Amino acid sequence: MTTNQEPDNRSINIGSGNYNESIQGDYIQGDFIQGSVIYVNKSLFQISDLLGRRTSDVAKPATQEEYKQRKVLLNKVKNYWIEGVLEKSLHTRVMISLGLEERLDAVEHLGIDELPDKSGQALPTGVGVTDVFNQMGEGRTLLILGEPGAGKTTTLLTLTKHLITRTEQDLSRPIPVVFNLSSWASKRQNIADWVVQELNRQYKVSKSLAKAWIKKQQLLLTLDGLDEVKSEYREDCVQALNEFMQKHGQTEIVVCSRIQDYNALSTRLQLQGAICVQSLTDEQIKQYLNSAGNQLEALRTLLEKDTALQELAKSPLTLSVMTLAYEGKLVEDLPQTNSIEEHRRHLFNTYIETMFSRKEAKQKYPKEQATRWLIWLAKRLSQTSQTMFLIEGLQPTCFQTKTQKILYRIGSFLIGGLLGGLIGALIGLLDQSKSFELSLLIGVPIGGLSLLLQMTEIKTVETLKLWSWQEARKLLINGLVVTLPLGLIVGLLNKGNLLLGVIYWLIAELILGLLGGLRGLEIQRKTSPNQGISNSGRNALIVGLIGGLIGLLIGQLSGKPNWVLLGLDFGLIFGLIFGGGKACIQHFTLRFILYTKGYIPSNYAHFLDYGTERIFLQKVGGGYIFVHRMLLEHFAQMASVSVQSTIAPIPQSIDRNNAPTKPDLTNVGNSASQPPTPVQNHLVCTNCGNNNPSNFKFCSKCGIPLIKPSI
Predict the structure, then answer these.
(1) Which of 33, 139, 422, 583 is most buried as measured by Cβ atoms within 10 A of its Cβ?
(2) Could you tell me which of 202, 197, 162 has the C-alpha nearest to residue 178?
(3) 149 and 241, same domain (yes or no)
(4) pLDDT digits over 457-491, tens only?
(5) How far is the C-alpha of 151 from the C-alpha of 630, rounded, in Å?
(6) Is residue 607 part of a domain?
(7) Which residues span the domain enclosing 14?
(8) Is 389 helix (H, G, I), strand (E, B) or coil?
(9) 1-15, 33-47, 693-707: lowest mean pLDDT where?
């Protein structure tokens, strides 16, 4: 379309919306639209709501305290994901500009019946994800697709880095926050509640502040790992995202997913645009390897004739792993196979061996032991559809055998019995009668059973810090309705001793006032490994001291020596029950059982930091993630003699043409004790029985070094 008159303000009618846009400048030439960006004479003009919703100003921060809270969260996102993940990513070793293509067919556009058929068209060279996102205007939403290892997360975090810089310059802008959708499947609640949960769990933001930010639409959500949601819940997750966007139309969102998993869905995300990260071209791979020097000569030689390896190298992630694993190797050290799966397994096994052998990092753990712990961690994350591991997030559900569950329940019963026994002892002391032993006998089983019935989840108590007279006064007034009648009832039941009832009432009111006045920080500035349990232990001590001081004070005022002992018991009980002590005991009971079974080390944080040094893991605040999902999947599929008998198997994707050959044990007398029949020119793994190509040094299934037969 070409016009021959001076432009003026125009009215643009699209779909069911009527939007007034001011278009000024030179004559407009061009006749195609790409996504929500109109290309005119190779210049980008933004029409904010061409494919989206019209937005209004979101609520702005009103106080200096709100600005501080936003700054703290922004710094956490930057430290966790930009400095902690993006800048240390394996992708950064392959500094190649990734190509993008539009995929308008991947999303559902509300109010627009028909779009130009430009799906799959490559964007101009030099146009990156930031350019695409910026040209959408306010209220933008975007889907990022790609093959495994293509650089989707890197693209997402590159955009997040730009958004953080923009918000740092103006803190009134929405705060970009990174989440992984895999954790949504655990409870499958609405997205708003899930974001509140994750802000509290990962970033230590109070739930009240998180709810306020969502309501005022002051967050920009960058959501990775839609494909990591369990397949049976993935459709529901897409529906939940669509419902969230309908209710929070001004909240900007970016979603990431593997393209094959997304294409398998029948429901589409209702987003403004979609892009697909393109695989590396043969020319890009060749240029990169040529720039690496002679250390990768063997890899270059094999790539020229191995089509399976060529396909694998199109992923920036696997190309980066190749440069680390195959540096300085000879051609005969590399696998000679036409199977992509065999190549991939050999590549990651070699990478693991190389990282364990790095001279610049001190060998703190035996390789076999460290591998076993990483395998257990990967299997655990895979089974729960999680990507981030928090030590305080360990739950009783990680037990896989009846024996482990029984041991944990016995330990829990004993802990509950201790608490119940103390409560029973309190009853005996208060009554000052000979029923002390009876109270103890009643309290122990009741306490044990009560704790035994609460073993589904370990709940930490983390937010107990600042004092507020307003909160204390409010709880004291409301508490009168309960504490005063209870005090009078206790007095009447004790032979009409109203003085005892008044003392009970005063104790209850003092406890309510002191504990009610303790308020949590809206957002914690620092996070460290296992901080949830550390905070729970500290809060148990604080609450215990408060309870103990109250009891001692009442005992001194009443002149009754038993009340001094009662005060000490009060402190212990309140610290264990209300302050987080119970969570600490449950957590360390669980870890002790896992440690005795060989699944985890005694100092878990120390080992996870070691895994980070070896470039198996990355530290994200107080949590840890594998450097890439493909490495997590590889560890989860590895077999380990000491782990495989108690851990549920992970479904594997195995190339049928190169699947391990196993002996047929059906109707054969003693064949179960015989070793697997080796395939010609193959090596049989002595650990798992898998047949491997003769030039392999490590088993492609379990990663254990292969023993070549002596000639």
Answers:
(1) 583
(2) 202
(3) yes
(4) 677 765 554 445 565 566 566 656 666 676 666 66
(5) 12
(6) no
(7) 10-46
(8) strand
(9) 33-47
